[in-house]
């Protein structure tokens, strides 16, 4: 019985220590290719006459460090990480990440560094668990209209397609490649445009990164064009005038 009570007390102690404000882990998720802001605040530690010196790191790597205008970006975060100076002077040490990658997933920790040049100390500020997820969507496109696929990021290397009834995948587009199947693919602003879809354009479109991981999966349904009242009247007129017939269902 005593053992049970002491075990219970231990558990209670662990919970209390574990839940002190500084050690709360923030869990967040970001979609691959988009920006993410990892929250952090040093407002309560700020000394007005000091530019804060902040460090962000993962378990194994340096991510970003800022001391006034001086900054350092870790190798894997080159041109993608920042703690904006104008926010930092106000005590906001949030880490801004651009073009999030699957490999960015993990635990991030921020520290406030203080002390004179030769004796430095640091205070742990915030721990953030970042999950990175892929994009998923269902789209419906009319026959004859254009299908626009978002590539989201320069990480996109390939777009593959699986027709609704088949098990094989065909490569529709490749970065730096010459694959341009029927001349109906066009790329603009990180978007792939598939011109004038037909019934056989229905299926699954998957955007892959260089490791073959799916950045985005879009299931596309192809529908008959919806007729407006105007086109309906025109077609009725032409049907009566020139014996024009068509098999499009009026809706
Ligand atoms: C820091 O700035 C970002 C971007 O403006 C904002 O989203 C966030 O809420 C701010 N955090 C704090 C603690 O003020
Ligand atoms: C898929 O198969 C069904 C019948 O099994 C057929 O009606 C449909 O047209 C096929 N779709 C495509 C895109 O080939």
UniProtKB/TrEMBL annotation:
Q: Which InterPro entries match?
A: Ig-like_dom_sf, Ig-like_fold, T-cell_Activation_Regulation
Q: How does it sit in the membrane?
A: Single-pass type I membrane protein
SUPFAM superfamilies the record matches = Immunoglobulin (SSF48726)
> Does the keyword tRNA processing belong to this entry?
no
Location(s), subcellular: Cell membrane
GO CC term (a single one): external side of plasma membrane
Q: Which organism is it from?
A: Sinocyclocheilus grahami
List each coiled-coil range. Answer: none
Xref: Gene3D superfamilies: Immunoglobulins
Q: Where is the signal peptide?
A: 1-19
What protein am I looking at? Uncharacterized LOC107554275
The reply to whether RNA-binding figures as a keyword in the UniProt entry is no
Task: Identify the coding gene.
Answer: igldcp
Just give the chief location class.
membrane
**GO BP of this protein:** cell surface receptor signaling pathway; cellular response to lipopolysaccharide; immune response; negative regulation of T cell proliferation; positive regulation of T cell proliferation; T cell costimulation
Which UniProt keywords are present, listed alphabetically?
A: Cell membrane, Disulfide bond, Glycoprotein, Immunoglobulin domain, Membrane, Receptor, Signal, Transmembrane, Transmembrane helix
């Amino acid at each position: 019985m005593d053992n049970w009570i002491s075990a219970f007390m231990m558990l209670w102690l662990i919970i209390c220590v574990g839940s002190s404000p500084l050690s709360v882990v923030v869990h967040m998720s970001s979609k691959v290719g988009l920006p993410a802001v990892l929250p952090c605040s040093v407002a309560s530690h700020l000394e007005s006459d000091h530019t804060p010196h902040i460090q962000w790191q993962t378990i194994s790597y340096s991510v970003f460090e800022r001391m006034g205008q001086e900054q350092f970006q870790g190798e894997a975060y080159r041109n993608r990480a920042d703690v904006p100076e104008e926010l930092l002077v106000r005590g906001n040490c949030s880490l801004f990440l651009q073009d999030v990658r699957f490999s960015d997933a993990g635990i991030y920790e921020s520290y406030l560094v203080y002390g004179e040049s030769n004796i430095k100390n640091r205070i742990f500020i915030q721990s953030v668990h970042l999950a990175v997820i892929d994009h998923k969507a269902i789209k419906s496109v009319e026959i004859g209209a254009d299908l626009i696929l978002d590539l989201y990021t320069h990480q996109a290397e390939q777009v593959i397609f699986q027709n609704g009834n088949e098990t094989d995948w065909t490569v529709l587009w490749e970065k730096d490649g010459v694959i341009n199947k029927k001349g109906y693919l066009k790329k603009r602003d990180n978007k792939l445009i598939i011109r004038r879809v037909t019934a056989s354009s229905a299926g699954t479109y998957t955007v892959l990164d260089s490791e073959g991981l799916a950045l985005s999966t879009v299931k596309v349904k192809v529908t008959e064009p919806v007729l407006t009242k105007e086109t309906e009247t025109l077609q009725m007129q032409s049907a009566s005038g020139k014996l024009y017939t068509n098999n499009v269902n009026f809706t």
